[in-house]
Amino acid sequence: MPTEATRRPNTLFRNLNAKIASLPMILTALVVFVGGTIWTITYSFTNSRLLPRLNFIGLDQYERLWSTPRWIASIQNLVIYGSLSLIFSLLIGFVLAALLDQKIRFENTFRSIILYPFALSFIVTGLVWQWLLNPDFGVQHLVRTLGWESFTFNPLYDQSIVIYGILIAGLWQGTGLVMCLMLAGLRGIDEDIWKAARVDGIPMWKTYIFIVIPMMRPVFVTTLVIIASGIVRIYDLVVAQTSGGPGHASEVPAKYVYDYMFAAQNLGQGFAASTMMLLTVAIVVVPWAYLEFGGRRRHG
Protein backbone atom coordinates (compact mmCIF):
# COMPACT_ATOMS: atom_id res chain seq x y z
CA MET A 1 0.00 0.00 0.00
CA PRO A 2 1.58 3.35 -0.98
CA THR A 3 2.56 5.61 1.86
CA GLU A 4 2.05 9.37 2.04
CA ALA A 5 5.70 9.92 1.13
CA THR A 6 5.31 7.93 -2.09
CA ARG A 7 2.03 9.65 -2.99
CA ARG A 8 3.44 13.18 -2.60
CA PRO A 9 5.66 13.14 -5.76
CA ASN A 10 2.67 11.95 -7.81
CA THR A 11 0.65 14.91 -6.53
CA LEU A 12 3.53 17.28 -7.22
CA PHE A 13 3.86 16.26 -10.88
CA ARG A 14 0.14 16.06 -11.56
CA ASN A 15 -0.95 18.45 -14.34
CA LEU A 16 2.70 19.33 -14.86
CA ASN A 17 2.14 20.97 -18.26
CA ALA A 18 -0.49 23.31 -16.81
CA LYS A 19 1.80 24.26 -13.95
CA ILE A 20 4.68 24.99 -16.31
CA ALA A 21 2.39 27.09 -18.54
CA SER A 22 1.29 29.15 -15.53
CA LEU A 23 4.86 29.97 -14.45
CA PRO A 24 5.16 33.18 -16.58
CA MET A 25 1.94 34.54 -15.08
CA ILE A 26 3.05 33.64 -11.55
CA LEU A 27 6.46 35.25 -12.05
CA THR A 28 4.87 38.37 -13.53
CA ALA A 29 2.53 38.64 -10.57
CA LEU A 30 5.40 38.21 -8.13
CA VAL A 31 7.58 40.82 -9.84
CA VAL A 32 4.87 43.39 -10.63
CA PHE A 33 2.50 43.11 -7.69
CA VAL A 34 4.56 41.70 -4.83
CA GLY A 35 7.73 43.51 -5.93
CA GLY A 36 5.85 46.78 -6.45
CA THR A 37 4.21 46.46 -3.06
CA ILE A 38 7.51 45.88 -1.27
CA TRP A 39 9.07 48.78 -3.20
CA THR A 40 6.24 51.13 -2.23
CA ILE A 41 6.32 50.17 1.44
CA THR A 42 10.12 50.52 1.55
CA TYR A 43 10.13 54.02 0.08
CA SER A 44 7.29 55.13 2.37
CA PHE A 45 9.95 55.25 5.11
CA THR A 46 12.11 57.70 3.13
CA ASN A 47 11.96 61.43 2.41
CA SER A 48 11.77 60.89 -1.37
CA ARG A 49 10.56 63.94 -3.25
CA LEU A 50 10.65 64.16 -7.03
CA LEU A 51 12.67 60.94 -7.37
CA PRO A 52 12.82 57.95 -5.00
CA ARG A 53 15.89 57.79 -2.83
CA LEU A 54 16.85 55.52 0.06
CA ASN A 55 17.22 58.14 2.76
CA PHE A 56 15.32 56.52 5.63
CA ILE A 57 13.53 58.76 8.11
CA GLY A 58 11.58 56.13 10.03
CA LEU A 59 7.89 56.79 10.65
CA ASP A 60 8.05 60.53 9.93
CA GLN A 61 5.95 60.25 6.77
CA TYR A 62 3.24 58.35 8.64
CA GLU A 63 3.26 60.82 11.53
CA ARG A 64 2.90 63.68 9.08
CA LEU A 65 0.18 61.77 7.21
CA TRP A 66 -2.00 61.27 10.28
CA SER A 67 -1.49 64.84 11.43
CA THR A 68 -2.68 66.30 8.10
CA PRO A 69 -6.32 67.52 8.18
CA ARG A 70 -6.70 66.73 4.49
CA TRP A 71 -5.86 63.06 5.05
CA ILE A 72 -8.16 62.85 8.09
CA ALA A 73 -10.97 64.35 6.01
CA SER A 74 -10.35 61.81 3.25
CA ILE A 75 -10.57 58.93 5.73
CA GLN A 76 -13.79 60.31 7.21
CA ASN A 77 -15.28 60.65 3.73
CA LEU A 78 -14.21 57.12 2.85
CA VAL A 79 -15.87 55.74 6.00
CA ILE A 80 -19.12 57.62 5.30
CA TYR A 81 -19.17 56.79 1.60
CA GLY A 82 -18.05 53.20 2.14
CA SER A 83 -20.48 52.27 4.89
CA LEU A 84 -23.50 53.83 3.15
CA SER A 85 -22.46 52.43 -0.22
CA LEU A 86 -22.18 48.90 1.18
CA ILE A 87 -25.56 49.09 2.90
CA PHE A 88 -27.56 50.69 0.11
CA SER A 89 -25.86 48.75 -2.72
CA LEU A 90 -26.68 45.43 -1.10
CA LEU A 91 -30.18 46.50 -0.09
CA ILE A 92 -31.20 48.06 -3.41
CA GLY A 93 -29.43 45.39 -5.46
CA PHE A 94 -31.09 42.55 -3.56
CA VAL A 95 -34.56 44.13 -3.74
CA LEU A 96 -34.23 44.69 -7.50
CA ALA A 97 -32.98 41.12 -7.96
CA ALA A 98 -35.88 39.75 -5.92
CA LEU A 99 -38.35 41.71 -8.05
CA LEU A 100 -36.80 40.51 -11.31
CA ASP A 101 -36.77 36.95 -9.98
CA GLN A 102 -40.59 36.96 -10.01
CA LYS A 103 -40.51 36.12 -13.74
CA ILE A 104 -41.89 39.51 -14.73
CA ARG A 105 -42.51 40.52 -18.33
CA PHE A 106 -39.70 42.29 -20.19
CA GLU A 107 -37.20 41.09 -17.59
CA ASN A 108 -34.32 41.28 -20.05
CA THR A 109 -35.19 44.89 -20.87
CA PHE A 110 -35.38 45.97 -17.24
CA ARG A 111 -32.17 44.12 -16.42
CA SER A 112 -30.32 45.82 -19.28
CA ILE A 113 -31.61 49.27 -18.28
CA ILE A 114 -30.56 48.82 -14.64
CA LEU A 115 -27.16 47.37 -15.58
CA TYR A 116 -26.43 49.98 -18.27
CA PRO A 117 -24.87 52.60 -15.91
CA PHE A 118 -22.21 50.06 -14.94
CA ALA A 119 -21.00 50.06 -18.55
CA LEU A 120 -20.15 53.77 -18.27
CA SER A 121 -16.84 54.99 -16.94
CA PHE A 122 -16.73 56.79 -13.60
CA ILE A 123 -15.68 59.96 -15.40
CA VAL A 124 -18.83 59.93 -17.55
CA THR A 125 -20.99 59.10 -14.53
CA GLY A 126 -19.41 61.91 -12.53
CA LEU A 127 -19.93 64.47 -15.28
CA VAL A 128 -23.56 63.41 -15.78
CA TRP A 129 -24.36 63.72 -12.08
CA GLN A 130 -22.40 66.95 -11.81
CA TRP A 131 -24.84 68.35 -14.36
CA LEU A 132 -27.91 66.79 -12.70
CA LEU A 133 -26.96 68.16 -9.27
CA ASN A 134 -25.99 71.60 -10.53
CA PRO A 135 -28.39 74.12 -8.92
CA ASP A 136 -28.48 76.34 -12.01
CA PHE A 137 -29.79 73.78 -14.51
CA GLY A 138 -30.16 70.46 -12.67
CA VAL A 139 -32.75 68.97 -10.32
CA GLN A 140 -33.05 72.11 -8.22
CA HIS A 141 -33.70 74.30 -11.28
CA LEU A 142 -36.26 71.83 -12.65
CA VAL A 143 -38.25 71.65 -9.41
CA ARG A 144 -38.23 75.43 -9.02
CA THR A 145 -39.57 75.89 -12.55
CA LEU A 146 -42.48 73.65 -11.52
CA GLY A 147 -43.48 76.13 -8.82
CA TRP A 148 -41.52 75.17 -5.68
CA GLU A 149 -39.40 78.32 -5.53
CA SER A 150 -37.93 77.55 -2.10
CA PHE A 151 -36.73 74.06 -3.03
CA THR A 152 -32.98 73.62 -2.44
CA PHE A 153 -30.93 70.66 -3.59
CA ASN A 154 -27.26 71.41 -4.26
CA PRO A 155 -25.22 68.73 -2.43
CA LEU A 156 -22.07 69.23 -4.53
CA TYR A 157 -21.81 72.85 -3.36
CA ASP A 158 -22.42 72.21 0.35
CA GLN A 159 -19.37 71.06 2.33
CA SER A 160 -21.47 69.27 4.93
CA ILE A 161 -23.29 66.99 2.46
CA VAL A 162 -21.08 66.89 -0.63
CA ILE A 163 -20.04 63.28 0.01
CA TYR A 164 -23.71 62.26 -0.22
CA GLY A 165 -23.94 63.79 -3.68
CA ILE A 166 -21.03 61.58 -4.73
CA LEU A 167 -22.74 58.63 -3.06
CA ILE A 168 -25.83 59.11 -5.25
CA ALA A 169 -23.74 58.84 -8.41
CA GLY A 170 -21.84 55.82 -7.06
CA LEU A 171 -25.06 53.97 -6.22
CA TRP A 172 -26.53 54.78 -9.62
CA GLN A 173 -23.56 53.20 -11.35
CA GLY A 174 -22.80 50.23 -9.10
CA THR A 175 -26.22 48.95 -8.04
CA GLY A 176 -26.82 47.22 -11.39
CA LEU A 177 -23.81 44.95 -10.94
CA VAL A 178 -24.94 44.03 -7.42
CA MET A 179 -28.40 43.26 -8.78
CA CYS A 180 -26.97 40.87 -11.39
CA LEU A 181 -24.83 39.06 -8.79
CA MET A 182 -27.80 38.71 -6.47
CA LEU A 183 -30.07 37.58 -9.31
CA ALA A 184 -27.57 34.87 -10.25
CA GLY A 185 -27.58 33.72 -6.61
CA LEU A 186 -31.37 33.68 -6.47
CA ARG A 187 -31.58 31.69 -9.70
CA GLY A 188 -29.32 29.11 -8.07
CA ILE A 189 -31.83 28.41 -5.28
CA ASP A 190 -33.62 25.10 -5.78
CA GLU A 191 -37.24 25.57 -6.82
CA ASP A 192 -38.28 22.85 -4.36
CA ILE A 193 -37.32 25.16 -1.49
CA TRP A 194 -39.82 27.75 -2.68
CA LYS A 195 -42.50 25.11 -3.12
CA ALA A 196 -41.90 23.71 0.37
CA ALA A 197 -42.09 27.22 1.88
CA ARG A 198 -45.39 27.87 0.12
CA VAL A 199 -46.80 24.52 1.25
CA ASP A 200 -45.83 25.27 4.86
CA GLY A 201 -47.50 28.67 4.61
CA ILE A 202 -44.28 30.64 5.25
CA PRO A 203 -44.61 34.29 4.13
CA MET A 204 -42.36 35.28 1.26
CA TRP A 205 -40.42 37.85 3.31
CA LYS A 206 -39.61 35.22 5.94
CA THR A 207 -38.52 32.81 3.21
CA TYR A 208 -36.07 35.40 1.92
CA ILE A 209 -34.71 36.39 5.35
CA PHE A 210 -34.46 33.00 7.07
CA ILE A 211 -33.91 30.60 4.17
CA VAL A 212 -32.77 32.26 0.94
CA ILE A 213 -30.31 34.86 2.27
CA PRO A 214 -28.38 32.36 4.47
CA MET A 215 -28.07 30.06 1.45
CA MET A 216 -26.64 32.97 -0.57
CA ARG A 217 -23.79 33.67 1.86
CA PRO A 218 -21.02 33.05 -0.74
CA VAL A 219 -22.72 35.48 -3.13
CA PHE A 220 -22.98 38.14 -0.41
CA VAL A 221 -19.34 37.69 0.63
CA THR A 222 -18.10 37.96 -2.96
CA THR A 223 -20.29 41.01 -3.59
CA LEU A 224 -19.01 42.67 -0.42
CA VAL A 225 -15.40 42.18 -1.51
CA ILE A 226 -16.11 43.63 -4.99
CA ILE A 227 -17.90 46.66 -3.54
CA ALA A 228 -15.29 47.23 -0.82
CA SER A 229 -12.36 47.09 -3.24
CA GLY A 230 -14.10 49.66 -5.44
CA ILE A 231 -14.77 51.92 -2.45
CA VAL A 232 -11.13 52.00 -1.39
CA ARG A 233 -10.03 52.86 -4.96
CA ILE A 234 -12.64 55.55 -5.61
CA TYR A 235 -11.00 58.42 -7.47
CA ASP A 236 -12.52 59.14 -10.91
CA LEU A 237 -15.99 59.86 -9.57
CA VAL A 238 -14.72 62.45 -7.10
CA VAL A 239 -12.46 64.16 -9.64
CA ALA A 240 -15.23 64.35 -12.24
CA GLN A 241 -17.84 65.72 -9.83
CA THR A 242 -16.02 67.97 -7.38
CA SER A 243 -12.22 67.63 -7.78
CA GLY A 244 -12.18 67.10 -4.02
CA GLY A 245 -14.05 70.33 -3.23
CA PRO A 246 -15.54 72.50 -1.97
CA GLY A 247 -12.17 73.00 -0.33
CA HIS A 248 -11.19 69.47 0.66
CA ALA A 249 -14.68 68.47 1.78
CA SER A 250 -14.92 65.56 -0.67
CA GLU A 251 -11.28 64.45 -0.52
CA VAL A 252 -10.64 60.69 -0.71
CA PRO A 253 -7.44 58.68 -0.07
CA ALA A 254 -6.81 57.79 -3.72
CA LYS A 255 -6.92 61.45 -4.73
CA TYR A 256 -4.62 62.36 -1.83
CA VAL A 257 -2.09 59.80 -3.09
CA TYR A 258 -2.27 61.08 -6.67
CA ASP A 259 -1.94 64.73 -5.69
CA TYR A 260 1.08 64.18 -3.46
CA MET A 261 2.90 61.86 -5.86
CA PHE A 262 2.34 63.81 -9.09
CA ALA A 263 1.20 67.34 -8.24
CA ALA A 264 3.11 68.06 -5.02
CA GLN A 265 6.00 65.76 -6.12
CA ASN A 266 6.28 64.30 -2.63
CA LEU A 267 6.75 60.61 -3.32
CA GLY A 268 7.47 59.66 0.30
CA GLN A 269 4.14 61.07 1.50
CA GLY A 270 2.29 59.51 -1.43
CA PHE A 271 3.90 56.13 -0.74
CA ALA A 272 2.89 56.33 2.93
CA ALA A 273 -0.72 57.10 1.99
CA SER A 274 -0.84 54.31 -0.59
CA THR A 275 0.58 51.89 1.99
CA MET A 276 -2.29 52.77 4.32
CA MET A 277 -4.70 52.11 1.43
CA LEU A 278 -3.03 48.75 0.88
CA LEU A 279 -3.51 47.96 4.55
CA THR A 280 -7.21 48.80 4.21
CA VAL A 281 -7.55 46.42 1.25
CA ALA A 282 -5.76 43.70 3.21
CA ILE A 283 -8.20 44.15 6.09
CA VAL A 284 -11.02 43.45 3.61
CA VAL A 285 -9.42 40.66 1.56
CA VAL A 286 -7.76 38.58 4.30
CA PRO A 287 -10.98 37.87 6.27
CA TRP A 288 -12.75 37.05 2.99
CA ALA A 289 -10.01 34.61 1.98
CA TYR A 290 -10.12 33.03 5.43
CA LEU A 291 -13.91 32.63 5.35
CA GLU A 292 -13.94 31.23 1.83
CA PHE A 293 -10.88 28.99 1.67
CA GLY A 294 -10.33 28.31 5.35
CA GLY A 295 -13.95 27.28 5.79
CA ARG A 296 -13.79 24.95 2.81
CA ARG A 297 -10.63 23.33 4.13
CA ARG A 298 -12.18 22.75 7.54
CA HIS A 299 -15.23 21.11 5.99
CA GLY A 300 -13.21 18.98 3.60
From TrEMBL:
<keyword id="KW-1133">Transmembrane helix</keyword>
<dbReference type="InterPro" id="IPR035906">
    <property type="entry name" value="MetI-like_sf"/>
</dbReference>
<keyword id="KW-1003">Cell membrane</keyword>
<feature type="domain" description="ABC transmembrane type-1">
    <location>
        <begin position="75"/>
        <end position="290"/>
    </location>
</feature>
<feature type="transmembrane region" description="Helical">
    <location>
        <begin position="207"/>
        <end position="232"/>
    </location>
</feature>
<protein>
    <submittedName>
        <fullName>Sugar ABC transporter permease</fullName>
    </submittedName>
</protein>
<feature type="transmembrane region" description="Helical">
    <location>
        <begin position="21"/>
        <end position="45"/>
    </location>
</feature>
<keyword id="KW-0812">Transmembrane</keyword>
<feature type="transmembrane region" description="Helical">
    <location>
        <begin position="113"/>
        <end position="132"/>
    </location>
</feature>
<feature type="transmembrane region" description="Helical">
    <location>
        <begin position="161"/>
        <end position="186"/>
    </location>
</feature>
<dbReference type="InterPro" id="IPR051393">
    <property type="entry name" value="ABC_transporter_permease"/>
</dbReference>
<feature type="transmembrane region" description="Helical">
    <location>
        <begin position="78"/>
        <end position="101"/>
    </location>
</feature>
<dbReference type="Pfam" id="PF00528">
    <property type="entry name" value="BPD_transp_1"/>
</dbReference>
<comment type="similarity">
    <text>Belongs to the binding-protein-dependent transport system permease family.</text>
</comment>
<keyword id="KW-0472">Membrane</keyword>
<feature type="transmembrane region" description="Helical">
    <location>
        <begin position="271"/>
        <end position="291"/>
    </location>
</feature>
<keyword id="KW-0813">Transport</keyword>
<dbReference type="InterPro" id="IPR000515">
    <property type="entry name" value="MetI-like"/>
</dbReference>
